[in-house]
Amino acid sequence: MFIWCRDHRLHHRYSDTDGDPHNSKRGFFFCHMGWLMHKKHPYVIELGRRIDMSDMQSDWMVMFQKKYYYPLYLLLAIFIPMYVPLYFFGEHWWHSLLVCYFLRYVFSLHGTWFVNSIAHLYGTRPYDKNLQPVESWFVSVVTLGEGWHNYHHAFPWDYKAAELSYFINHSATFIEFLDMIGLAYDLKTASPAMVLNRIARTGDGSHYLLGDEETRKAVTAWGPLHPLNPTYNSTLQPPSAVLKPEGLPLFHEKDVLKLKISRRSASTA
Q1: In 3D, which of 116, 114, 119, 130 has the Cα closest to residue 237?
Q2: If I label 145, which of 92, 107, 250, 268 is the partner at 20 to 30 A Cα–Cα?
Q3: Among 126, 104, 268, 93, which residue's Cα sits nearest to residue 209?
Q4: What is d(CA 269, CA 7) in angstroms, rounded to the nearest whole number?
Q5: What ranges do the domains of the chain cover?
Q6: pLDDT tens digits for 246-262?
């Protein structure tokens, strides 16, 4: 958890540059799984040391998991998944190992890596055409809602990681259930006005409500043109990415400014 959180914060701040651990500009294989087989880029190492992790370091549960990662991994990822079919269903230990550990692990890993690869390469950018990440129905189906990636990078602090929590977004639904029973709280989300401002200001025109037909037609795919096709892609050129020491902002001042102006106008009307 601690290492993932550090790398994920680095990924958002320096997205799709040499400061990004899984920089999609280096190709599909690299951002999907090759980044785990390479030495880290020097910028990733240098900039990773600057990421503030004080909140994670003050969380006893995160630090407990970090300290006892290997025994916890053996217990939770290997022993328990293998033991259940062995004890309750009389399964052979070898079959249990192959299916409940290896097959499950390979499937979950590639599903997770799709967010770094497909969801950065094949899709549309209705919220911010200046960001490399895209909206991918295919990845959302595989990952239970983590494929609405253009929105997630436009509003990285939104718990839904998508504009809608009820459309192929079981992750958000689960978080809302935890909030309902008191196990999650202080959920942060972008207001509808802020989302609309961002779509109007930086969207590529493909938004399902506010887009235009001309842009929606500017879509291509390998094979059938279907939203669940993993190669579903906009013909618009992907944006360039420039590495800046300060990284990308958590939010855009223009969105907040427009929101303040609209609120002020509504209060004086």
Answers
A1: 130
A2: 250
A3: 126
A4: 46
A5: 124-269
A6: 777 666 666 665 555 55
